[in-house]
Amino acid sequence: MAGNREFFNRRLHSLLGVIPVGLFLVQHLVVNHFATGGEESFNNAAHFMESLPFRIFLETFVIYLPLLFHAIYGLYIAFTAKNNTSRYGYFRNWMFMLQRVSGVITLVFVAWHVWETRVQAAFGAEVNFQMMENILSNPFMFWFYIIGVISAIFHFANGLWSFLVSWGLTVSPRSQVISTYVTIGIFIALSIVGVRALTAFI
Amino acid sequence: MQETKTKTVRFVISRQDTPDSAPYQEEFEIDYRPNMNVISALMEIRRNPVNVKGENTTPIAWDMNCLEEVCGACSMIINGKPRQSCTALVDQLEQPIRLEPMRTFPVVRDLQVDRSRMFDSLKKVKAWIPIDGTYDLGPGPRMPERKRQWAYELSKCMTCGVCLEACPNVNSKSDFIGPAPLSQVRLFNAHPTGEMNKAERLEQIMGDGGLANCGNSQNCVQSCPKGIPLTTSIAALNRDTTFQSFKNFFGSDQI
After folding, report:
1. Do you know which SUPFAM superfamilies this protein is assigned to (chain B) (predicted)?
2. Of B64, B90, B113, which closes a domain?
3. Most distant CA atoms of chain A, gap in Å
């Protein structure tokens, strides 16, 4: 792979964004949605996830390592672009810019979110409904979470669109237009799931 | 119409004396003539290089050649959009007409840029069909007429640089080759004889600064003056390089 490291890295970056990081995002949002069923229902679901066997390995290989690579290489990609939406205000160019902006917002959000929940859990705190209720009772944190969750979902949905292009699955303009509609649908559906879960804590 | 009322055309031109000096703006006002294009206006200014303040100045430097939008030499930024100045008709432009060089490329002087990197890229991707042998290789395979018509659209590329100028990923921080040479890979890989070097071209664009740097902003296809389906070419090459990389890693055949 020495000759085409950049090609390999870019493709790996695109793949990891969907599998496993994107899939993990969907799973996480779905599990959070248990919160709409009340405190007990959320705590049961969270407890089930916590008590999965080989948890540390699952976390490391499904979340930490892929996410770290995606985040660090993504930052490099974001900062090598020279955005020009003021001169070229086309839809896809806006998506290109928003993909980079939402990526950076998501990274800040995820870093804070991991610190506040998973790292605190490692220090002995218990991650449950109560914890999230406490965090989200602060209006600033509530909006921080809303923005973070929506930008993560946008980044995933739009990233799925460019994943399909980057791997050569959607080649024709028509297939790219249809996959735009599909990914907009995914964005809206997951946003409803994510926001419903957040509002369930307050 | 505004032109008939004032009978002049106003230009705001970005100028630069040497490749390294700072750019500055200079305004010009010239008499209106029917059917003027940006080039005929620039020629008019060259005939009498006096700016709007009445000062004598140097004539403006720009590139031009064919004057019918097939050579790509006269590309510049006209009212914010990169395009050919030969087909930029004064009657269709909002005034003052603002001219700038395409700064994605090194500026030589005023509106003149050095597009060498594009021609170097064409060499890199072997944008030609090798037909020379030490003996007569005979006639090559024939190309179906429908395919020839399709390929003709890709062959309209005039290396003008507009797509590189529009691309957010072609800039001084990245060494992205840009859309135009990538589409040429698709063109020459589609040719029955050119196809014999398909893997070589794909390997080249799988290298650093190659195809994978595309961020799908799709500005190129919106900006191309020849309407070349650049993003379709890029997506098609994404597919070809996916197969090529699998072949390289898992397969045993060399091409």
Report:
1. 2Fe-2S ferredoxin-like, alpha-helical ferredoxin
2. B113
3. 54
pTM of structure: 0.93
**B165/B128 same-domain check:** yes
Which pair of structure tokens corresponds to residue A20?
A: 């496993």
Where does residue B239 fall: left (phi above 0), alpha (psi -120 to 50 degrees), or beta otherwise?
alpha
* Coil, helix or strand at residue A201: coil
Burial class (CB in 10 A: 0-12, 13-18, 19+), A101: middle
Q: Is the pLDDT of residue A2 over 70?
A: no
Domains in chain A: boundaries: 1-201
Identity of the residue in B81, B173, B212 whose CB atom sits nearest the CB atom of A7: B212
| Within-domain flag for B246 | yes
B78 and B35 within one domain: yes
Same domain for B47 and B134, yes or no, is no
- Tell me the one-letter amino acid at A125: A
Domains in chain B: how many in total?
2
> Is residue B3 a part of any domain in this protein?
no
d(CA B224, CA B219): 9
Which range marks the domain in which residue B155 is found? 115-251
Cis check for the bond before A20: say yes or no (omega within 30 of 0).
yes
Residues of chain B whose beta carbon is less than 8 angstroms from a beta carbon of chain A are: 80-81, 166, 168-169, 171, 173-174, 203, 206-219, 222-223, 229, 231-232, 234-242, 245
The span from the CA of A113 to the CA of A202, in Å, is 18
Claim to verify: residue B160 and residue B85 sit in the same structural domain = no
**Secondary element (H or E) of residue A98:** helix A91-114
Average pLDDT over residues A179-187: 98
Answer yes or no: is B221 within a domain: yes
What ipTM was predicted for this assembly? 0.93
Which CATH architecture group holds A1-201?
Up-down Bundle (1.20)
The CA distance from B235 to the nearest CA of chain A, in Å, is 5
CA distance A54 to chain B (A): 31
Which member of A88, A166, A171 has the closest CB to residue B236?
A171
* Token pair listed for B67: 């004057």
The rounded average pLDDT for each run of 10 residues, N- to C-terminus, in chain B (255 residues) is 69 96 96 95 96 96 96 97 97 96 97 97 95 84 94 97 97 95 97 93 94 96 97 98 92 75
Minimal Cα distance from A9: which residue of B?
B212
